Amino acid sequence: SSEDGTRSWSNTKSLALHERAAKVMPGGQANFRGGLLSTPLFFSHARGARLWDVDGNEYVDLINAGGPGILGHNDPEYIDALKRQLDTVYSLGSGICQTEQDIELAEKIASHVPCAERVRFCVTGSEAVHLALRLARAYTKRPYFIRFQTHYHGWFDSVLGGVVDEHPEGRPLPLESEQSFFHTEGRVPDAFKYSFLLPWNDIDVLEETLKKYGHEVAMIHMEPILVNGGGCPPRPGYLERVRELCDQHGIVLGFDEVITGFRVGLGGAQAALGVTPDLATFGKALGGGMPMAAVAGKAEIMDQLRTGKVTGAGTFNGYPLGVAASLATLKILERDDGAVYRRIDMMQARLKEGLLDICKRRGIPALVQGPRGVFFLLFTDKPVIYSFQELMEAALPRQFKFYSTMPEEGTLLMYGGRWYISAALTEADVDCALESADRTLARI
Ligand code: PLP
């Protein structure tokens, strides 16, 4: 803010960089970033829970790299671990040259995550999902998989977007649609042929589908808590019933824990919710900021990688700098019986109470929902939202205005209005973010 207390925000330098980038970079680095602001920002540096842009604007960072930043920026112990690794060896060809740290990291994951009898590292969540699907198909010798509307499993052809539609044979196949948020041209025409896209949290639809097609389904993959569709929890008993159905039909149950893994706790959503999948995919917080991902799961399925029945490869899998980053992250998260998680809980509670207070004072209906470490502020008077469809009906236009205006008031949120909490967040940061929210609501 300026000296007289009024905020002055401008993005002149960011705008100039935006124009420069447009000449060589088609749409920036990834298509989904456009939703953050009508004008993209360019950043220069970060400290703790704060980010600065090239115009000198300072922000409370509640994007946290889109999930990886569970420790915030510049955690000294994390940085030290990276520096030490840089001085030792930072890159080796995966599968050719391994380190002892690879085993230590796999052992750590296995000790925390209920389904993790075996672990294979990848670099991104998208790849982890790709490998998990391959493992499940090889294991069951079946071609199909089931996924759910508004669950996000990366950008590869067969899992991105789509809408539920009527298929000539009655199969609820996902079809390409320009209405879909994740619409893309350029897929092979049958990219969705071997999958079903169903509404989540609806056990009847799943049961019906499995009655007809269960014997053809290799895997059901889902976000066990639907962070990508509004922080929705599973309905009571839903995951337990899905587990039973998978056992009855011989289907591999997969949890996509790319967001929830190591964020909602060391054991992920599966430990928090008490339902153990057969396979789980991890990414984001696993690396604490460096790209790291993994597939973890039952020995019988994962050991197909040992026998060579299934191939999973990647030049950078288990690269030493990433493994060091993950080990440092997990060591920090394990410390003092989860002190980091307790701190995250405290800051999240302070944010939640503050936001609900502000909305109440302004006469705006509000719901804060989501698991530990990531939540949504939704403008609805419903006590809980169980699907993205409900969210659309409830709150979307105001939602969009809110999160796209927040940066001008000093706080960065993920598109959709998602708040990622890091361990670096202080009471002062929380109070700043609450003031941003209050000013934003006054404006919109
Ligand atoms: N799965 C989930 C649940 C995700 O949220 C994401 C990314 O946001 C992915 C998979 C894909 O991960 P990545 O972007 O690292 O490829």
TrEMBL record:
- Keyword Nuclease belongs to the record: no
Q: Which SUPFAM superfamilies match?
A: PLP-dependent transferases (SSF53383)
**Superkingdom of this entry's organism?**
Bacteria
Pfam families named among the record's database cross-references: Aminotran_3 (PF00202)
InterPro entries, per database record: Aminotrans_3, PyrdxlP-dep_Trfase, PyrdxlP-dep_Trfase_major, PyrdxlP-dep_Trfase_small
Recorded GO MF terms: pyridoxal phosphate binding; transaminase activity
Q: Which UniProt keywords apply?
A: Pyridoxal phosphate
Keyword tRNA-binding recorded: no
Listed cofactors: pyridoxal 5'-phosphate
Instruction: Supply the CDD domains for this chain.
Output: OAT_like
What family classification does the UniProt entry report for this protein? Belongs to the class-III pyridoxal-phosphate-dependent aminotransferase family.
Name this polypeptide is given: AmbR
Provenance organism: Sorangium cellulosum (Polyangium cellulosum)
